[in-house]
Amino acid sequence: MLAMLIRRLIQSIVVMLVVAFIAFSLFQFVGDPINNMVGQEASAQERAELRERLGLNDPIPIQFMRFVGNAAQGNFGISYRMARPVSAVIAERLPATLELAMISAFFALSMGIGLGVYTALKRSGVLSNFIMTVSLIGVSLPTFLIGILLIYIFAVELRWLPSFGRGQVVRISDWWTTGLLTPSGRASLILPAITLGLFQLTLIMRLVRAEMLEVLRTDYIKFARARGLAQRSIHFHHALKNTLLPVITITGLQLGTIIAFAIITETVFQWPGVGLLFINAIRFVDVPMMSAYLVLIALVFVVINLIVDVLYFVVDPRLRATKH
Amino acid sequence: MTTEQTAGDQPLRPSLWRRILDSDLLYSFLRKPVVIVSFVLTVIIVLAAVLAPWIAPHTPFDPASLNLMNGFTPPFSANEFTGDTFILGTDSQGRDVFSAILYGARISLLVGFSAVAFAMILGVGLGLLAGYKGGWVDSLIMRVADVQLSFPAILVALMIFGVMRGVIPPQQQDQMAIYVLILAIGLSDWVQYARTVRSSTMAEKNKEYVQAARLFSVPAHRILLKHILPNVTGPILVIATIGLALAIILESTLSFLGVGVPATQPSLGTLIRIGQDYLFSGEWWITIFPGLTLLVLALSVNLLGDWLRDALNPKLR
Amino acid sequence: MNDVLLSVRDLVVEFPKRDKVLTALDHINLEVRRGEILGMVGESGAGKSLTGAAIIGLLEPPGRIAHGEIVLDGQRIDNLPYGQMRRIRGRKIGMVFQDPLTSLNPILTIAEQLIETIRTHLPMNEKQARERAVELLEEVGIPAARRRLDDYPHHFSGGMRQRVVIALALAGEPDLIIADEPTTALDVSVQAQIIDVLKRLCRDRGASVILVTHDMGVIAEAADRVAVLYAGRVAEIGPVRQVVKDPSHPYTVGLMGSIPSVVHDIDRLTQIPGSMPRLDNIPQGCAFNPRCSQVHDRCYRDRPNLIAVESKPDNQVACWLFDERASS
């Protein structure tokens, strides 16, 4: 197990280095950083000095090493557009995105697994068929359209829920603000969380259903039936446990996508998170911000992948075979 | 959109027809009302988009033809000042929403088809290369594919778009936007093709007839195109159909985020973004109708892809 | 008739397809006596496994019992509601499947699977059930049973897993065990051991067994009586010695003639020409008529039912040859 973990860890580091290199290359490809930092009126000599001082004359490998070193400490330079340290801006916005992502992940997972199991067990039921049809529409519906339709129904027509922003937030520490503690904060979370989670929900649901149907056809389930075990136990103890094994992997990766899809949801609902920050960074070619976001997202994905691997190990006894 | 498409299709044609006969594709098609409806809807939208300049009642992006007095006319009713009627209403500029949708669908489909063609050519090419050459070429291509696949397409497309933004001088950005978009969406979606083609190539290249062709020193590209490619027509067609739905959704999403096509050439996504601002003041039709069009288009193409996958039954996941 | 444990009467199992109904089992009649091992042989597709599935009430939909009845211990069981049938499965009828590698739930320990099964059927607490589980594993011949109780299935070899499967099938102390090709997936060297375990346990407990197999060697070794199935019908049924040594039905004759080990008194192996008809293509009259060497007009017209063979007590055969002999 340890050997595998170490191998995974090395793989992850390689991926992070590749991503870091891409993020680093952004600076090389996209415009001249000096132009972005000093005004038009700066003299050639001032530019040359700044260039020297920032180490832009060093060989590329040295510059890259420096970039990685800085990035590892969370230092991505100064945002061109906001003229503030990128890491400070991101840290300020991160709680909003994480909170949104967690709530929608929870929503997508619980509803996805529940509906998946239900539609697998009641394969030919009217409600199952209805859920499956709706889920197909869900897969085809672009996230932003879901958001707009929800806003139109629940914010504009019914006026039940707010349509933008985080509502009132409470600062619980220096670096964390939450909307979960106020009524307006909670109300503001509902529509964005549904919007963000709906696509993953349909994916997870269809996956769970397909896996569950597969497992229900296996010999060990037939054998369990032939031993007269209770229906309940066969479905939720024997079958569901086996179903969730492959689901963990794909679901884990889906949770990563939630963070990425937050870009869209945050735009629709003007949610003050890092996704909205990133879109604005792209619009205004704010390279430090773009590269920082890229590294951050890659980190999230790599960490989720690692957790999924470990989780798989914990759940599947076959992988623990060496223990005996 | 058409030239690239036929270029990609040409060598595949005989095998495609054979497959259609083999798999009773037509029979399966006629037995599924949902699929027929999806097909008809897709054809209608594609035709309407292609013929937009001839069938649209107005030319929505010619400022001279717009009358501001017609602004915010609700659908199915006459404007209270001018008496003009617009079937799906008008936006703030007095622009006919129906015509805007036709032109918007045109852009969306243009980008969608081109991106799919680009992704297909790139993916099939790299897949053939990786599968046939093996060794470090294979590892390199597949490593890149793995890394890319672990990130969602939208993120990849956004990054590529961002880089292109920086590289292209500002004054050319608007006119280059569509090409950048095609490039970004295409690059984000080649992996599926490459993986399928690669595994099929690896399986096929060790079969006797390919080995025999190699002994007779038939050039590699002939072997690849004549013997290996026809075997993957079915799976590629399925990936391309589902890919088209994904590309349309991705394009509209990027345009909605304001990083897609410029506002002077709005796609469905752009129309929805512009219309969103008026949702709160009650002019729902400006955003809802383009939204419904996008939904119907994406859903129909998706259903077609799903059906095609089941009907051709390639081992896809 | 008190020595009859199970009787299957005129059992018909159908599979409705898109445009027609396939009859997979066509008026099956057989009895299983207390304490006996009834072998069930036939080519694949003859309906051996399906008969087993029908008896234990686990036909895969859309398969359904269309006609006939199954009586176990005086109680009709083919029309029981799910809840009642569940209490018969495992408690009255146990089942052993073909492939021990896939029969056990891979992510539950042997103990978990055994204890759950025991406690489903017998009034025991966790601790008692655990003791019982150890006893069962010892009975089926698993060494160091107590220590291996908390292992997962993948820690056992194929033969050992099949022993665990048998232990699980016996956990509810059933009167009847349906063993569906229990040795087919195993190494030849292990097959005899598993058959021995099965034989010994049933003898000890007085349980009956339906042993489904296509291996005549296994039948000759283990069974008391044997039923030969062909195209969803019983062709012949009788004591194993009679059926193997002196088969009556032309199909059984051909079947025995094709087995080298059992037959000593003929020089050449024979082969039955042709193959068993598909379910959608069963001929009128006797299903065996296209391949039969002694076919005559009546075989094409009427379907033969099981009839007693005069010279052989306890033997029944579905063939017109014997009807004529009887009437003449």
Describe this structure in words.
The complex is a heterotrimer of chains A (324), B (317) and C (328). Chain A has helices at residues 2-29, 33-37, 44-53, 60-72, 86-121, 126-140, 143-157, 183-216, 219-226, 231-268, 274-283, 287-315, and strands at 170-173, 176-178. By secondary structure, chain A is mainly alpha-helical. The radius of gyration of chain A is 24 Å and the shape is globular. Chain B has a domain at 104-316: MetI-like fold, CATH 1.10.3720.10. The radius of gyration of chain B is 22 Å and the shape is elongated. Chain C is an alpha/beta fold. Chain C has a single domain, classed as P-loop containing nucleotide triphosphate hydrolases (Rossmann fold), CATH 3.40.50.300. Chain C has 13 helices and 12 strands. In chain C, the strands form 2 sheets. Chain C has an 8-stranded mixed sheet with strand order 6-7-8-3-9-10-12-11, with helices on both faces. In chain C, strands 2-1-4-5 form a 4-stranded antiparallel sheet, with helices on one face. Chains in contact: A-B, A-C. The A-B interface holds A 15, 18-19, 22, 26, 29-31, 136-137, 139-145, 148-149, 151-152, 155-156, 163, 253, 256-257, 260-261, 263-264, 267-268, 278-279, 281-283, 285, 287, 290, 294, 297-298, 301, 305 and B 147, 150-152, 154-155, 158-159, 161-163, 165-167, 245, 249, 252-253, 256-259, 269, 272, 276, 279-280, 282, 284, 287-288, 291, 294-295, 298-299, 302-303, 306. Chain A: InterPro entries: BPD_transp_1_N (IPR045621), MetI-like (IPR000515), MetI-like_sf (IPR035906). Chain A: It is a multi-pass membrane protein. Chain A: The chain crosses the membrane at residues 12-30, 100-121, 133-155, 189-208, 244-264, 292-315.
Descriptive key words:
heterotrimer, A: about 325 residues, mainly alpha, MetI-like fold, two-stranded antiparallel ribbon, 12 helices, 2 strands, globular, C: about 325 residues, alpha/beta, Rossmann fold, 8-stranded mixed β-sheet, 4-stranded antiparallel β-sheet, nucleotide-binding (chain C), Oligopep_ABC_C (chain C), ABC-type dipeptide transporter (chain C)
Instruction: State the CATH superfamily name of chain A.
Output: MetI-like
The top-level CATH class of chain A is Mainly Alpha
Shape of chain A: globular
Interface with most residues: A-B, 46 and 39 residues
Helix content of chain C: 25-40%
Shape of chain C: globular
Number of helices of chain C: 13
What is the total tally of β strands of chain C?
12
Quaternary state reads: heterotrimer
Mean pLDDT of chain A: 82
CATH fold call of chain C: Rossmann fold
Number of helices of chain A: 12
> Low-confidence spans of chain C: pLDDT under 50, at least 5 residues?
none
Rg of Cα set of chain C: 21 Å
CATH architecture of chain A: Orthogonal Bundle
Poorly predicted spans of chain A: none
CATH 4th-level superfamily of chain C: P-loop containing nucleotide triphosphate hydrolases
Tell me the fraction of residues in β-strands of chain C, as a range.
15-25%
* Count of individual domains of chain C: 1
InterPro entries (chain A): BPD_transp_1_N (IPR045621), MetI-like (IPR000515), MetI-like_sf (IPR035906)
Membrane topology (chain A): Multi-pass membrane protein
Keywords (chain A): Cell membrane, Membrane, Transmembrane, Transmembrane helix, Transport
Family (chain A): Belongs to the binding-protein-dependent transport system permease family.
